[in-house]
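Re-running the complex after MR caught last week's input typo. The corrected sequence lines follow. Everything else is unchanged.
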Amino acid sequence: MSDKMKTYPVVDVKTHHPEMKSYYFRQIEEQILPGQFFNLWLPGVDEKPFSVSDVYQGIMEITIKAVGPFTRAFMNVKRGDRIGIRGPFGRGFTMHQHSLLIGGGMGIVPLRYLARNLREKGFHFEVILGGRTEKDIPFTTEFSEWAPTTLVTEDGSLGYLGLVTQHIHEIIGRSKLSHIYSSGPEGMLVRVMEEASGRGLDYEISFERYMKCGIGICGQCVVDGSGIRLCKEGPVLNREEAEKVTEWGMVHRDGAGRRERED
Amino acid sequence: MSLCMKPDISVSFLNKTMSSPLVLASGVLGLTADSMKRVLEAGAGAVTTKSFSMDPRKGHPCPSILPYDGGLLNAVGLSNPGVAEMNKEIRKLQTQHNGLIFASVFGRTPEEFGSAAASAAESEPDLIEVNVSCPNVESEFGTPFGASFRDVEKITTIVKKAAGSIPVSIKLTIHCPSISKMARVCEESGADAVTAINTVGPGMLVDTGVMKPVLANKVGGVSGPAIFPLALKAVWEITGTVRLPVIATGGVTTTDHALQMIMAGAALVSIGSAVYYEELDVFSKINKGLTDWMTERKIGNLQEIRGKAHE
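Corrected-run output:
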């Protein structure tokens, strides 16, 4: 793991659409687990955590959607520009047979690298992905090639009309899946936890909180109820860990450390 | 002591008993009750909150905390959700653990230090630590308050009055004409303890790839093992000058560091950056290290070695 700041050139950029791009870097660490994240520093702007969307043949991919000042500035990054990279940080997903991958929006990103790992192990898994519109669901081609994949959009522009959470029940029942992986908007994650707990299924979920140091000392990403540092013991938590946390779906903290209501 | 007796690492501090002389230093894992509870459970005798001000502060953009070869560089910029939030966390922690809680406060003016301390006193922490020495925030004259005898005297007097019955420790910096004279000023102004030292510098790092400073704030306070000898000398100098108890902090990472601080006269030993190097285990490791060392040297109580380096 590289905690210290070092910049690396972008070796390639792929434009999914003008507001979502993948940036490719030389693989800086031997072992990068799906669900782990890197802190990316855009010199002169800020530094933010991003999970890995893929590691393949010595190249690692980070996929970013323009949602705020930092990610909008990132859309101007070109091949050859240098980006500061620290990591990989945190704990990733562990490998399980017969799983369902449930992803929403940009939460789909870490599941893509997870899917590659499950596939390489020859494990059986199914996938359900949701987004507001077709544009908000990345990597549909890869997922569909690798596993039975259900797509859901809120406007019906791709797959079923509605929400991911309306379809989980049926898929689990039909395919006898025993493990759930999930990442996405927290409202969705809370529903996934309820569904999994109701069925007595184990799960691993990648959560998101405002992070600063990435190395477990600043305390910014500690979640209530547990003292769990999401940058260190997370961002992927298993059922036992996630159930200790009392703030899911209710509050999160901003950069000053203020508690804000979850949208 | 009799051979079969286990040495006692508990200490008495301002008429309160602590299970260990180790304290979580301000700025590390000190934002919420659950975070600090975890540190107390890991073996700290007390925890210090992150520094809080009357009004919430956003702090500096990131990168704001970076490891380098000899320690950490930080310019978090005193981000905090305001003293009222801190009080809620302290109240919550008091119901969950009986470890001591030190509330760290700061202000932009001496008067703001006073109102922050008055507000913090409402949650009845065991100590109010006054951060007059953060290198990232300056007085209106462009220097940290901790560099000026007059500012420290003024702030100590105001805070002591505002804190009522809650004891007050002033956190000092080595970046002043004389840290022992500064401690004397604190003592004469009514402080109950001093904390020494704050981060050193500020310092900086440049990324040679983009040829720019890496901290968003460009410069930041230096902590970690690199500053241990500076902190130790400051503690030794202060305890040779004033009778106030000293909370020693600055690069303490090992049992040997903690022993050196106590031998230099420290009442308590704070740990911050070492959480990065040794994880939360650092507290139980040093507690055990102290116990083992005392057993070997047939020492029953830390009081027996406190200040020995002065003799």
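None of the earlier attempt is carried over here. The mean pLDDT of chain B is 94. Residues 11-310 of chain B form a domain with the TIM Barrel fold (CATH 3.20.20.70).
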